[in-house]
Structures are given as structure tokens and as C-alpha cells.
Design goal:
Blueprint: H1 12-15, H2 61-77, H3 84-103, H4 108-120, H5 122-125, H6 129-142
Length: 144
């Protein structure tokens, strides 16, 4: 009976996996101590998106006041009966807040649109102090 040539070699010893947490060549010598301000992906077919929660863009105090007014009115809008005007205002508030967070300011065209939708929704938000505060903050930035 012929002896199998592969029976004499022990290739399993070379490929034997080390226990979890042991590091070593079987795991690619990957060791991560701490990660700050970044993202790590390990393995095949990773898709990593690293988004900062709050931008470190320096903002003018007038835009800080506008952001606060946007947040307050946005919270108040959640309590109102939805209408096309209120929905349009909520959308514009969200887009304006995003632009200010990303760039530190809002373009004059964005502020003009915000003012227009504020006026369109005035029947719904006229009694809200947050609506008045937002109108004042936008007016201060637009100069009127």
C-alpha cells in the first residue's frame, strides 16, 4: 500500500490560529490602543464615514445667536399643527442650521429665503417668542 505523501507533512501547524486577543501574525499584528478624531476599519469591504458632530469653524456671535434662535423655533415648530408653510419653514431652518455649522455663516440668499418663509408662516408662528427672536436675528444679519 502506497503511503500518502501529504500524510507525512503537518501543514496545519503553520496555519494554526492563535487564541483571540493574542495578536501575532495570524491576525496581522493589529493592535489599537486609542483613536481620537478619526475612524478605523478592519477587515474586508469596509465603508467608513467619519463625520464630526460639531464643526470647529469659528462663528461670528451674530451667527451664534441665529443658531440658538433656529434651534428654539425648530423645537417650537414640533408642537404646532403641520401646514405647508410650517413644513417649508422647518426645512429652511434645517438647511440654514446645517450651512452655519459647516461654514460658520449663512449666505445672504439663504438668509433671504429664511426671512421669506418666516413671513409666509407668520400666521402660524406669530404668537411664538422664538419666531420673533429668529426674525430679529435674521434682520440683524441682513441689515434691516
Amino acid at each position: 500500500m502506497a503511503k500518502d505523501a501529504d500524510a507525512d507533512t503537518d501543514t496545519d501547524v503553520e496555519n494554526e490560529e492563535e487564541p483571540a486577543g493574542a495578536g501575532g501574525r495570524a491576525y496581522g499584528d493589529i493592535r489599537i490602543g486609542a483613536v481620537r478624531g478619526g475612524a478605523v476599519g478592519i477587515g474586508d469591504h469596509n465603508y467608513i464615514v467619519n463625520v464630526r458632530a460639531e464643526s470647529s469653524v469659528a462663528r461670528d456671535p451674530a451667527y451664534e445667536r441665529l443658531l440658538e434662535a433656529i434651534r428654539q423655533l425648530g423645537a417650537d415648530l414640533a408642537r404646532l399643527v403641520e401646514s405647508p408653510e410650517v413644513s417649508a419653514l422647518a426645512d429652511e431652518l434645517s438647511e440654514t442650521e446645517d450651512e452655519i455649522r459647516r461654514t460658520g455663516a449663512a449666505a445672504p440668499g439663504r438668509l433671504a429665503r429664511l426671512r421669506a418663509v418666516l413671513q409666509d408662516a407668520s400666521a402660524s408662528i406669530g404668537m411664538l417668542a422664538s419666531g420673533v427672536a429668529l426674525g430679529q436675528a435674521v434682520g440683524a444679519l441682513l441689515g434691516g
